[in-house]
UniProtKB/TrEMBL annotation:
UniProt cross-references to SUPFAM superfamilies, sorted A to Z: ARM repeat (SSF48371), Zn-dependent exopeptidases (SSF53187)
Enzyme class: hydrolase
Catalytic-site annotation from UniProt: 940
Compositionally biased intervals (Acidic residues): 363-391, 1027-1044
Official protein name in the record: Cytosolic carboxypeptidase 1
């Protein structure tokens, strides 16, 4: 039973004995003992080949076996001994040799092999068996030696191996390990360039060839070497020699013959070579000239059905998108269609930069865009309804209007329908209303009076009145002088009782859309390219054959600049820039008519600017059907399938993009199937909330005032566009005129609320609506809240931007939430007067207890807050100030914590209380620093939905947003319990002296949102979850809340993170 074990022990001891003898022979240089050494090494090799355990004995700690073997290899001049030792090393490093390889490298084995390789090549012809052994070992050792590339270059081994390849093209036995070593060499960029200069590319193209079953292993290593050597500086050399068409032909041949997909690795490596060559402009041109787009398109479409071939499809897609010729947008200029004359233009300001650009700058395309980043294949798809209804007459958007006084408005119970009513659907027009003129309404084809059926939604929408809305529209002043009214704003929106889930991503949708875009270049003759709507050419009516959709955006808050029919049921849409700007394309709101039911229409908004969007994470666009509204369902509903968001082939000039070279646009694409024939439907980025709607709601709210409610509406100021900015004061009336009650009335702490500084963040207005309705309600909690505080509310800080369909700016072409440090009374009147009011409150000892600015966030889920904390800023920025020396009241955390307990959509883990340099000019930071409000917040509401709490997995609707506004009020009521009486009496929060040291602004210019700079959201590409927690100690968490990343990037000059702002 013990004989095998004893035999193993004897063999192991024998190996040690032989190693000991070899060591003594190495030390005795006087005696020529080549025969003895040859005999001993042969015996050691035999033992290693027959007894597996002897390998461990040789490399065990303290044995010194590896040193003895390497010393013998370095000193011997005998060929057979050398071959024996190389074979011994090969045995030691073959099976389970990871640790042994590390020992080999640490003992200087790599250098010995490289020196032997070079010295052996000096006496040609080199021994083939010796070269085979050396290269076989280098293949195993190279990846384990971090300095292998440098060592091989310094020893001159690169050209030795390359020459061996050159002279042994038919000797596959030696060629294969040499190619493997070349692959390891070229993993070092300097080596790759050196090999390219020495002719490695030419040699590889002598080996590479069409499909063959005989030498697939060799082919695999050839293309792997070629892939590495064709990058960087070698790419131009390869393109100049015409290798790119050759690679395309070879790829096509392997694709055609590899029908069982057994050689996907080879095909992928060939694509990787093509990808490297197309990284340079010359390579992209050669790719197009070689018909590469068509070749890769055809091969990729044949691979789509096989999931295991996705790597080929993805790489092909990346190459085609990169080589797709960059085009400018089909516009005469990327500046806004509309222009508003400003009182003055600050020299060096964004508007001055915009209008001082060289003529034709919008036509310049920066060809230096070398961006290779590819988007993650994240797509969404929903089922669509295919119901058909009876034939209805087409709404006539081009009909002449009737006087509004002649319209008969009738209301009928919900649920009843008269399909003939759609025959009379025209366009609701306010003719000259902004100048006090007459108000026109609907007219049918014959010019007779039209009867518009308005759904009776008074019980569900107590604050909505269509007649009152039209009255409000009359006094609303827009730059384009809009005379039309959108039906959803006129009819009103009733929140859905149904839950609308966040869409699950369906694999392959985005890729399919990208391939359809590539088809445009390959099959250009199939593209209609028919302009069906154009604000730049309004005087020239668009011809229509009755087959195209009709578009319109000439109403309050509307935004659609141009619509181009590219295929029968596909349209490219271009959004208008913010007025006096050349960017900020995100908000859209437009009308579509003349559709067919049961047809899948694809819409592509092609000039989006943000690098990521919640449309990649389950968010859908909103649609409002007029036919559904007349039939008793006046709802904005989430709709669309095949939704995805990706980079397209349109780009801006480097000058127009503020120096950001070759900045590309992104496409939002979605597919819609209409349910009704000849319906009139509206699409929007989020639930619209117009300025006229606000005025209507405020007038209806004032009618709810009771004897117990103090409600006053003032005009804060007049905007640049001539519209008033409402300022509300809401509190409880004093119980009596006694001194005690009057004193209590005057001593109530102030809560200052504002919203809608960014016009495209309409969700902030719906949250504000919920707040206002709660404050004006008769509930005991509302009465208690009014008795606790005096509310100063500016429900819409940017009326002009809202009216004119802007996304972020006012008529000054600037982001108003970057003007709070030094607002200009003429250019930023709402910010100037809002700040003045806050300064007045501070001067009179009425500093607000809470300031909160309502916003919307396009890249995150849930509702959360940004606040201000010195201590957390120090902690996150690793400032030198010791946190133990800072004393700070943690009361700024109370309100967010209360909201996380009360509001189901609120997420405390997404909140941040860090003060960033990039946010110094925002309302939140300025009110905190200059006015002294400790509880100064920005409350961000998602545009998409929730990933936690009661509404997890659901898209957010107006009812949830209004609920959030009401919950905010309840949290303020509970906050009163946690606030000390002393703090209520003295609201002035004295900031610590260290705050000015931490955020020193003396060297920072006044922050403005330059018109020529694209401001993105502060979220990393395709990261939707935020793991930052205020209680966390993970300072270097890669998923920190983007505000923190932004701050860290600003403080660390070496950081290359690209984050941006939403506040």
């Amino acid at each position: 039973m013990n004989k095998p074990k004893m035999a193993a022990e004897k063999s192991a001891s024998r190996v040690l004995m032989l190693l000991s003898q070899l060591e003594r022979l190495n030390e005795d240089h006087k005696v020529s003992n080549n025969d003895a050494i040859r005999q001993i090494t042969g015996k050691i090799l035999h033992l290693l080949q027959t007894q597996e355990k002897t390998r461990k004995e040789v490399t065990s700690k303290g044995s010194g076996g590896m040193e003895v073997i390497l010393s013998s290899l370095e000193n011997t001049q005998d060929l057979q001994t050398t071959l024996n030792i190389l074979a011994i090393l090969n045995e030691l490093l073959t099976v389970g040799g990871g640790r042994r390889t590390g020992v080999f490298v640490s003992k200087g084995g790599t250098a010995i092999l490289l020196q032997m390789l070079v010295s052996s090549s000096k006496n040609p012809p080199a021994n083939e068996e010796l070269m085979l052994h050396i290269h076989t070992l280098l293949v195993k050792v190279g990846p384990k030696d971090r300095k292998f590339g440098v060592k091989s270059r310094l020893n001159g081994a690169l050209n030795v191996t390359l020459n061996l390849v050159k002279h042994n093209l038919q000797n596959h036995k030696l060629l294969l390990p040499c190619l493997q070593v070349l692959r390891v060499y070229s993993s070092n960029l300097v080596n790759a360039v050196s090999l390219g200069k020495s002719g490695a590319l030419e040699i590889m193209f002598e080996i590479i060839g069409p499909f063959s079953k005989k030498s697939t292993t060799l082919m695999k290593y050839v293309v792997s070497v070629l892939c590495v050597c064709s990058s960087g500086m070698n790419a131009r050399r390869a393109v100049d020699r015409g290798y790119l068409p050759t690679l395309l032909s070879i790829y096509q041949d392997w694709h055609r013959h590899d029908t069982r997909h057994r050689h996907v690795v080879i095909r992928k490596s060939i694509l990787a070579c093509i990808k490297n060559l197309t990284n340079i402009k010359l390579g992209r041109k050669a790719f197009i000239d070689a018909n590469g787009m068509r070749i890769l398109y055809n091969t990729s479409t044949e691979c789509l059905a096989v999931r295991t071939l996705d790597p080929l499809v993805n790489t092909s897609s990346l190459i085609m998108r990169k080589c797709f010729p960059k085009n400018r947008l089909p516009l005469p200029t990327i500046k806004s269609v509309f222009h508003h004359q400003l009182p003055h233009i600050a020299a060096g300001g964004p508007v001055a930069q915009l209008y001082n650009q060289p003529p034709g700058v919008d036509d310049v395309v920066d060809e230096s865009d070398e961006n290779e980043a590819t988007e993650v294949d994240t797509e969404n798809e929903t089922e669509y309804e295919d119901d058909e209804t009876e034939d209805l007459v087409t709404p006539r958007p081009d009909e002449s209007p009737l006087e509004l006084d002649s319209i008969s408005i009738s209301k009928r119970p919900e649920g009843t329908a008269d399909h003939d009513l759609v025959c009379s659907l025209g366009r609701l027009v306010v003719d000259g209303g902004v100048n006090g003129g007459s108000v026109d309404g609907l007219q049918d084809e014959g010019g007779e009076q039209a009867v518009l059926e308005v759904p009776d939604t008074a019980a569900l929408l107590p604050l909505h009145d269509p007649d009152l809305y039209l009255e409000m529209v009359k006094s609303t002043r827009s730059v384009p002088a809009y005379t039309e009214v959108a039906y959803p704003d006129y009819f009103g929106h009733v929140a859905l009782n149904l839950r609308e889930p966040i869409l699950e991503r369906v694999y392959g949708v985005q890729r399919m859309k990208i391939f359809q875009d590539i088809e445009r270049l390959i099959h250009s003759s199939d593209i209609l390219d028919k302009v069906v709507y154009d604000l730049d050419n309004q005087s020239c009516p668009v011809t229509d054959n009755g087959e195209s959709l009709k578009f319109n955006s000439k109403f309050e808050s509307g935004n659609l600049r141009k619509a181009i029919q590219v295929r029968k049921f596909e349209y490219d849409l271009i959004l208008n820039s913010d007025i006096n700007s050349n960017h900020y394309h995100q908000w859209f709101y437009f009308e579509v008519s003349n559709m067919r039911p049961g047809v899948r229409y694809r819409f592509n908004i092609i000039n989006c600017e943000k690098s990521n969007s919640q449309f990649n994470y389950g968010m859908q666009v909103l649609m409002y059907s007029v036919q559904d509204a007349i039939n008793g369902s006046p709802h904005w509903v989430r709709t669309g399938s095949d939704i995805c968001y990706y980079k397209n082939h349109f780009s801006r000039s480097s000058i127009a993009a503020g120096g950001q070279k070759g900045k590309s646009y992104f496409t939002l694409t979605f597919t819609v199937t209409f349910q009704h024939k000849d319906d009139v439907c509206y699409f929007a980025y989020h639930y619209p909330y117009t300025y006229s709607m606000l005025k209507m709601h405020l007038q209806k709210l004032s009618a709810l005032r009771t004897a117990q409610i103090y409600y006053r509406q003032d005009d804060l100021c007049e905007t640049l566009g001539g519209n008033s900015c409402p300022l509300l004061t809401i509190t409880a009336m004093p119980e009596s005129s006694s001194n005690d009650h009057i004193s209590q009335f005057r001593s109530r702490p102030v809560v200052f609320l504002s919203a809608r500084v960014h016009p495209g963040e309409t969700n902030s207005s719906w949250v504000m609506k919920g707040t206002l309705e709660f404050l004006m309600s008769c509930s005991p909690q509302a009465q208690s809240l009014r008795e606790s505080y005096i509310f100063k509310i500016i429900p819409m800080l940017n009326p002009d931007g809202v009216i004119n369909g802007n996304h972020r700016c006012s008529l000054s072409g600037e982001d108003l939430n970057r003007q709070w440090q030094s607002p200009n009374a003429e250019l930023h009147p709402t910010i100037y007067h809002a700040k003045s009011l806050l300064q007045y409150l501070r001067a009179t000892g009425r500093t607000p207890l809470v300031f909160c600015d309502y916003h919307g966030h396009s890249r995150k889920k849930n509702v959360f807050m940004y606040g201000c904390s010195i201590k957390e800023t120090v902690w996150q920025t690793n400032a030198n100030t010791s946190t133990c020396d800072l004393q700070e009241d943690l009361g700024y955390r109370t309100l967010p914590k209360l909201l996380s307990q009360m509001a189901p959509v609120f997420s405390l883990s997404s909140c941040s209380f860090v003060v960033e340099r990039s946010k110094e000019a925002t309302a939140r930071v300025v009110v905190w620093r200059e006015i002294g409000v400790q509880r100064s917040y920005t409350m961000e509401s998602t545009l998409c939905g929730c990933d936690q709490g009661k509404y997890k997995g659901l898209q957010i609707g107006t009812s949830e947003l209004e609920e959030m506004g009401a919950q905010f009020c309840l949290a303020l009521l509970r906050l009163r319990r946690y606030t000390s009486p002393l703090e209520l009496q003295n609201h002035n929060s004295h900031l610590l002296d260290t705050e000015n040291d931490l955020i020193d602004t003396r060297g920072i210019p006044n922050i403005t949102s330059t018109t020529t700079y694209v401001l993105e959201e502060d979220e990393a590409a395709f990261l939707e979850e935020v793991d930052y927690s205020a209680e966390s100690n993970d300072e270097n968490d890669p998923d920190l809340e983007p505000d923190l990343q932004d701050n860290l990037a600003l403080l660390d000059p070496s950081s290359d993170s690209e984050f941006s702002q939403t506040e």
